[in-house]
């Protein structure tokens, strides 16, 4: 049974999460205090920590950073703070995922399954699987899936996506991507990167949702969760 620690001070939300996760067969334990949550996270063996940002005594960012100094326990932040700055701060602190409130329980459960599948893949064969939301890329098998469904990519598309997913939340210049994917000696213009980013977006982005690959004006591209 997977063990999930919920650090959430909003009583109704905490109770809702606890009941839903137990209904799905997980062991779920709740605390509404940041300091207590940190102590539990550090002392116990948890498969996942669901972590709010705004907490009494210790904030979520500080808790996540403390966990990362000692453990690799997956952390998913669940918070009403939804600005790009908040997302970047959360992920940079060491969180594996960031889910803004309000959210549908189905999405939370789907993201939890992605985290556990990634863990199981690593434990089974030691293979690295890169993830961005429900998009997974395995360099060894050269398999890409989106929401569990395979995504067919060309060799160049795969190489470009791999470069971006290895550097989630890090801006990569067009020149860096060109050198990584096409090679230092390639006689191609940096505009080819824009063309291939467009190809990728058509294959991995969900309709009506923001693109996973974001352009940074005058620099290049970044993949964000």
UniProtKB/TrEMBL annotation:
Pfam families assigned to the protein according to its UniProt record, in alphabetical order: Response_reg, Trans_reg_C
Positions of the Response regulatory domain: 3-116
Domain of life per record: Bacteria
Sequence ranges assigned to domain OmpR/PhoB-type in this UniProt record: 127-225
Key words, A-Z: DNA-binding, Phosphoprotein, Transcription, Transcription regulation, Two-component regulatory system
InterPro entries in the record: CheY-like_superfamily (IPR011006), OmpR/PhoB-type_DNA-bd (IPR001867), Sig_transdc_resp-reg_C-effctor (IPR016032), Sig_transdc_resp-reg_receiver (IPR001789), WalR-like (IPR039420), WH-like_DNA-bd_sf (IPR036388)
DNA-binding residue intervals: 127-225
GO biological process: regulation of DNA-templated transcription
Residue list for modification 4-aspartylphosphate: 52
Gene3D superfamilies: 3.40.50.2300, 6.10.250.690, Winged helix-like DNA-binding domain superfamily/Winged helix DNA-binding domain
Molecular function via GO: phosphorelay response regulator activity; transcription cis-regulatory region binding
Gene Ontology CC terms, in alphabetical order: cytosol; protein-DNA complex
Name used for this protein in its record: DNA-binding response regulator
The species this protein was found in: Paenibacillus oryzae
């Amino acid at each position: 049974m997977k063990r999930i620690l919920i650090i959430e001070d909003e009583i109704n939300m905490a109770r809702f999460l606890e009941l839903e996760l137990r209904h799905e067969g997980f062991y779920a334990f709740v605390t509404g205090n940041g300091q207590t949550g940190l102590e539990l996270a550090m002392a116990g063996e948890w498969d996942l920590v669901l972590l709010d940002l705004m907490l009494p005594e210790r904030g979520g960012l500080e808790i996540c950073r403390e966990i990362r100094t000692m453990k690799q326990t997956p952390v998913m932040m669940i918070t009403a703070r939804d600005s790009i700055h908040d997302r970047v701060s959360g992920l940079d602190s060491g969180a594996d995922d960031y889910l803004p409130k309000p959210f549908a329980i189905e999405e939370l459960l789907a993201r939890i399954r992605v985290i556990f599948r990634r863990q199981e893949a690593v434990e089974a064969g030691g293979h690295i699987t890169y993830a961005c939301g429900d998009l997974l890329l395995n360099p060894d098998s050269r398999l890409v899936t989106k929401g569990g469904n395979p995504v067919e990519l060309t060799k160049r598309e795969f190489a470009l996506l791999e470069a971006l997913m290895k550097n989630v939340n890090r801006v990569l210049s067009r020149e860096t991507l060109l050198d990584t994917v096409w090679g230092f000696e390639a006689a191609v213009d940096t505009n080819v990167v824009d063309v291939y980013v467009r190809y990728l977006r058509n294959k991995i982005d969900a309709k009506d949702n923001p693109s996973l690959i974001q352009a940074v004006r005058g620099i290049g591209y970044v993949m964000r969760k």
